[in-house]
Amino acid sequence: MPARHSAPHLIAFATSLLARAGLDAEKSAVVAGILVEGDLLGHTTHGLQLLAPYLGEIENGAMTKTGEPRVLADFPAAVTWDGCRLPGPWLVVRALDLAIARAKTQGTCTVVIRRSHHIACLAAYLKRVADQGLMVLLTCSDPSVSGVAPHGGRRAVFTPNPLAAAWPTDGDPVILDISASITTNGMVNRLRAEGKKFPAPWLVDGHGQPSGDPAVVFADPPGAILPMGGLDHGHKGYALGLLVEALTGGLTGHGRADPAEGWSATVCLQVFTPGLFGGHEDFLRQTSHVAAACRATPPRAGFERVRLPGENGLRRRTEQLANGLELYAGIIPALTSWAAKLGVPLPAALV
Questions:
Q1: What is the rounded CA–CA span in Å between residue 188 and residue 21?
Q2: Taking each helix axis from N to C terminus, what angle separates 331-342 and 7-21, rounded to the nearest 10 degrees?
Q3: CB distance 157 to 145 below 8 Å
Q4: Contact 113, 84 (CB under 8 A)
């Protein structure tokens, strides 16, 4: 049976590694918390799996260790930052705090960030906003990286371009985190390293032929990930990918039209206060009615019941907080050399 670890102990371990690598104490704690939250929700390619690469980026100077974002524009409900390649999770948490405060008086606030470092799992930011009775939208792209072909194409143009959102109901919040692509670069890398294939042709090779083999992405000529919807309905994911590009690179004024600077993120987040629109109680009445109607829908063959987006992740989070977090195989081994190098003891597994 796989070992489990205490979530607080994992956060402390990750915080210590980041701090020993040179990151500010506050930034280290925020980044560590977001990474572990990703694992708690089940996003195992975007949780502590990212810690070793982040430590490498700190070591080689590609992630800025200290300082503040540079304010490029500041209106009551529209803010633009240059993230100066500071840690993405810390920038997003700071931006959300600002957007929440302003949305409570303005009704809504949007913060966009250019030149952030990678921001990890988008779902990891959402519950804390929805728990305050607010609605949040969050999306990002990496203008220095590609991996996803436009529908009908065979060369990568975009990143998976995730889109996440959350809003309250009279029960648990609805939490969604989807990509405009059928899979992610992280999963391509994981399956390739493990010698595995996708369950269906989610990729195209460099000649445009459908494939489920992640090795085609690294071939010459390189293949690409298909948009969400795959071979026949990929126009839908393609359109969402373009929307994300407009919300991120477009609104920040910095993206794929500019020289690449390395692993990064361009971010757009927006917070709404329902009480300053149609009213908080009526918002909950509407969202709760739709949620109940979905859950009450008779399931089709192969499904036990109809769930809401995020329901499974929240259930997993509660269980893992109580009984320990089950890390994906390979995460602790990947951090062992960093722990030895930085003088941080490895976290002990729960008995």
A1: 28
A2: 50
A3: no
A4: no
The helix (run of H) or strand (run of E) holding residue 245 is helix 230-245
| Pair of tokens at residue 258 | 């500019």
SS3 135: strand
CATH fold, domain 4-182+226-289+308-342, is Ribosomal Protein S8; Chain: A, domain 1 (3.30.1370)
- Give the position of tokens 């595995």: 196
Dump pLDDT digits (tens) for 161-186: 999 999 999 999 999 999 999 999 98
Rounded Cα distance, 38 and 186, in Å: 14
Judging by beta carbons within 10 Å of its beta carbon (0-12, 13-18, 19+), is residue 232 exposed, middle or buried?
exposed
Contact 58, 18 (CB under 8 A): yes
* pTM of the full structure: 0.96
The tens digit of pLDDT for each residue in 14-43 reads: 999 999 999 999 999 999 999 999 999 999
Strands 135-141 and 265-272: antiparallel
Q: Tell me the C-alpha distance between 351 and 115, whole Å.
A: 43
* Side chain identity at residue 5, one-letter code: H
Beta carbons of 236 and 61 less than 8 angstroms apart: no
- What is the number of alpha carbons within 13 Å of residue 92 lying toward its C-beta? 33
Q: What are the backbone dihedrals phi and psi of residue 331, each rounded to the nearest 5 degrees, phi first? A: -70, -50
What's the token pair of residue 48?
């502590």
Which tokens go with 226? 């298909």
Which one-letter DSSP state was computed for residue 227?
B
Can you give the residue ranges of every domain in the chain?
Answer: 4-182+226-289+308-342
